Amino acid sequence: MNDEYYMKMALREAQKAYDIGEVPVGAIVVWNDKVLARGHNQVELLKDATAHAEMIALTAAFSELGSKYLPEGTLYVTVEPCLMCCGALHWSKIGRIVYGARDDKNGYRRYVKENGDHSPMHVFHPKTKLNFGILAEECSQLMKDFFRERR
Amino acid sequence: MNDEYYMKMALREAQKAYDIGEVPVGAIVVWNDKVLARGHNQVELLKDATAHAEMIALTAAFSELGSKYLPEGTLYVTVEPCLMCCGALHWSKIGRIVYGARDDKNGYRRYVKENGDHSPMHVFHPKTKLNFGILAEECSQLMKDFFRERR
Q: DSSP state, A124?
């Protein structure tokens, strides 16, 4: 399956968050072309500031595999990871990260050091590949709708 | 009670990690001079790369208070937080962070942007106070002992 297929699945997770009044972010961990774990933001439900979609999906993936590393895994997430999730992805040694929409306010790129060309420093495992912009419009629109309703 | 008192308590948590073969880091969350939550590193035990002492202590504190914010709380941790834990502390809006030993390899200061004077950018909540170096020698020695044994 291709990246759009899995990003659509992550979007369905984000919609679940939206439907219960959570900031709509969803994540999927894929391993050998199989969905290993899912997660959607549950910060309000759990009253836990660390219950981001990525953290939930990663912890579920570790548990499913019985391993603290995910070198063959790909994490799809609808919105650019924050600093915490970026750190968690670093420790997981995940094979690939694919995110949809950029997040200039809370995304990790705002905080991590830059290279000479002002690109963010690669803080993930050296072997981790990174892609972004997949279904960015849809991922971003869900966030915009959410915050517009709450204004 | 003073910072040394609580850092000794965090060191006892770190010793628990040491005793079960985990990288020896311990954390305590204090609220109004009462210990609200404790945590020690359990990455190997849980096979979960996110099970750092700070994450466990924060999640326990959120659960204990039924709140996703800890503005009156202080987190004591024996070693400088990593990028993930730094991000989690940001979201928690914790009142104060006190760490013992610096961690030049995995500590957040290695990755976060710097100010003009090369000090790390303040990535925590604007009201979060930061102190470090409390019982640094003891906190660092436990780490050194752990890694020496494993070489």
A: S
Interface size between A and B, measured as CB pairs under 8 A: 105
Q: Is B86 annotated as a binding residue?
A: no
Closest listed residue to residue A50, CA positions, set B123, B62, B79 = B62
- Kindly state the tokens that stand for B114: 């710097």
SS3 A74: strand
pLDDT per residue, tens digit, chain B (151 aa), is: 799 999 999 999 999 999 999 999 999 999 999 999 999 999 999 999 999 999 999 999 999 999 999 999 999 999 999 999 999 999 999 999 999 999 999 999 999 999 989 889 999 999 999 999 999 999 999 999 999 998 8
The pTM of this model reads 0.96
DSSP state of A105: T
CATH architecture of structural domain B3-143:
3-Layer(aba) Sandwich (3.40)
Q: Which of B44, B54, B137, B138 is catalytic?
A: B54
Judge whether A82 is annotated as a binding position.
Answer: yes
Distance between B126 CA and the closest CA of chain A, angstroms: 14
CA–CA distance from B40 to each of A91, A102, B16, B89 (Å)?
17, 34, 7, 16
Contact residues for B123 (Cβ-Cβ < 8 A; gap 6+): A83, A111, B86, B87, B90, B108, B112
Domains of chain A, by residue range, sit at 3-143
Residue A116 has a CB neighbour count (10 Å cut-off) of 5
Annotation-wise, does B85 bind a ligand?
A: yes
Q: For B119, how many CA atoms within 13 A lie in the half-sphere containing its CB? A: 4
**Which residues of chain B approach chain A closer than 8 Å at the C-beta?**
43-44, 46-50, 55, 58-59, 62-63, 66-69, 82-88, 90-93, 108, 111-114, 121, 123
Residue A25 CB neighbour total at 10 angstroms:
32
